Amino acid sequence: MLSIFVKILKRRKDKDERTEESIDIIENGFDGVKLNLVPFHTVREFVNTLHTSSSAYLIRHSIINLAGNVVMFIPYGFFLPWIFERCKKYNRTVIYLGITIVLIEIIQLFTLRGSFDVDDLILNMVGVSLGYALFMLKSKARKREEADEK
Question: What is the pTM of this model?
Answer without folding.
Answer: 0.77
